[in-house]
Every structure is written in C-alpha cells, then in structure tokens.
Design brief:
A seven-stranded mixed β-sheet has the order 2-4-3-1-5-6-7, sandwiched between helices. The protein is built from twelve helices and seven strands. With 281 residues, the protein is α+β, with helices and mostly antiparallel strands. The protein is elongated and about 75 Å long. The protein starts with a helix and ends with a helix. The chain has two domains: 2-96, no CATH class; 100-278, YojJ-like (1. It has helices spanning 2-6, 15-35, 39-60, 63-70, 76-83, 85-95, 108-123, 139-142, 154-160, 200-211, 240-250, 257-278, and strands spanning 128-132, 146-151, 171-175, 178-184, 215-219, 226-230, 233-236. A hairpin with a 2-residue loop joins strand 6 (226-230) and strand 7 (233-236).
C-alpha cells in the first residue's frame, strides 16, 4: 500500500530516459573495468559500504551512527580524487584519444623491421623493451630518454639493445615509422595480481600500457621469451606469427595480418640464410 503511493511520482519511461539510463550504465561499466583487479577496486568497495551504511543509518534513525558518518561522507569525493588519480588520468586519456585524427603506427615495413629485430634479440637472449605509440602521445616518456628521431631499422634496434652500451637499459619508443628515443624511463605497474617473477622490464611494459593505449614488446634476457603488453595485460611466450597478429590487431590492421606474418617469416629466413653462409653471428 505504501509502495503504491510513490508509484505515481515515478517519471514516465520515454526514449530519452532509456538513452539516459544506457549512457549511465555504460559509464559505470567502464569505471568498473578501470579498477577491476587493482587495489583501487577494494578501496572503492570500502567507500561504497560507507555510503550504504550512512543511508541505512538515516533510514533506521540511528542518530549516533549518522552523526559519526556525517563527518566522513562529505570528504569521500576528495578521497576518491586522491586515491584514484592514476585511474582517473588513464580513463580521461582513453576518452580523449583522437584516433580519427591520426593514422597512428601503420607502416608494414616498420613492422617487418621490428619483428626481425625481436627475433634476433630473442635468439640471442638479449633483453629489450620496445614501445609502439598509438593515439595517446608518449612525449613525456620520450623526453626522459635519449632523442633519436631515426627511421626504424633492424640493425638500429639491435644496436640500441646491445648489452654493455649506454642505451641498453630502458625502452625504445616508436612513433609511427620512427624511433623517437631510446633508454626511456617508464612507470612500473603496481598491480597486485601480477606474478612476482616478472622483472622490472616486464613491469615497465605493463605500466606504460596502463596509462596509455600503446603496445609494448618485451624480450626476456633470461629466457629469450617474447611478451606483448597492452591495456594493462601481458601475454608471455608468444611466437613471431602471433606477435605480428597482435600488432596488426592493436593498430586496426586485422585484414592483412596473415599475409604480413607470412612475409615476416620469409624475411627472417632470408636474413638468417646469408648469415649462416658467411659464418657470422
């Protein structure tokens, strides 16, 4: 009976209302995806519990509890901004990316050079970290390293990650068809769900993809395994063919992925053949 008194006050469900509900639901869903699997998710649950508890105290007339929570609840907005500043920054960056204004990294020749370099680095168990910029600019991280602004080539990438040389440590950042900088410093991920066996290079590869929409390629100096990180997730031990497919898929080139991977393998065989004849490593 009491419920029927409030039903007439409910707004009429129109097409505009449906659109409004769908948009709000989509925003809430995207917000949950940002904090999923992170420490921020547990913090968010704690904040929501406090808000629910405050509502229960008001509804049940628990004045002592309501008075206590009334001093805390008004500051939850500020707490959310402070605690979720990295997640908010990452979300706004993804919303503000303008892929339709930029062609991004789309040069097949550059992909071939990178794949050939990664293959040789993996066979030699030489550690490497290559970051491919997509729509969100990496200028801040480029400025932390040594500026190069050079065309991508297999030999240049091999020279950058040669052990013992000054540019070996850090990441090489690729912007379109050029190597923008080397020996760049990247943020490390703090996700508690990752394996403790992951080293600094792999954590840096994941960390940069948590803040931007770039793609990171990692070669382990211990095992020679190839890993790819994107959107805060990493896939380890992938073959070269899958590496090419992931690059194409990330940058919107699925149609030619099979052809490009085949060409990359053929180029790798052509490169290895002269080296075996000459007897040079």
């Amino acid at each position: 009976m009491r419920l029927s008194q409030y039903l007439p006050a409910l707004p009429e469900l129109t097409l505009t209302s449906i659109i409004d509900i769908v948009i709000v639901a989509f925003l809430l869903y995207q917000s949950l995806l940002v904090v999923r699997g992170t420490r921020a998710g547990h913090i968010l649950i704690g904040i929501l519990m406090m808000v629910i508890l405050y509502g229960v105290a008001v509804w049940a007339g628990l004045e002592a509890l309501r008075s206590l929570l009334s001093f805390i609840v008004p500051y939850l907005g500020l707490a959310i901004i402070v605690l979720f500043q990295s997640a908010i920054r990452r979300t706004l960056a993804r919303i503000g990316r303008k892929r339709w204004f930029s062609a991004g990294f789309r040069a097949p020749e550059s992909i071939h050079e990178i794949v050939l370099a990664v293959e040789q680095l993996a066979s030699q168990k030489t550690g490497a970290l290559i970051v491919l910029e997509r729509d969100i600019g990496l200028r801040t991280f480029v400025e932390s390293g040594v500026r190069m602004d050079a065309l991508i080539s297999r030999d240049l990438l091999l020279s950058i990650f040669q052990p013992g040389l000054p540019l070996h440590d850090g990441a090489a950042i690729v912007q379109k068809d050029r190597i923008a900088a080397a020996a760049c410093f990247l943020p490390l991920t703090t996700s508690p769900t990752l394996s403790r066996t992951l080293g600094t290079r792999h954590r840096a590869a994941i960390g940069i993809t948590e803040e931007t929409d770039c793609l990171s390629i990692v070669v382990s100096e211990e095992t020679g395994r190839i890993s790819v990180a994107a959107f805060g997730e990493i896939a380890s031990g992938i073959p070269l063919a899958e590496l090419v497919q992931r690059i194409h898929r990330h940058f919107g080139m699925q149609r030619s992925s099979d052809m490009e991977s085949s060409e990359a393998r053929e180029e790798a065989e052509l490169v290895e053949a002269p080296r075996s004849v000459d007897g040079r490593s």
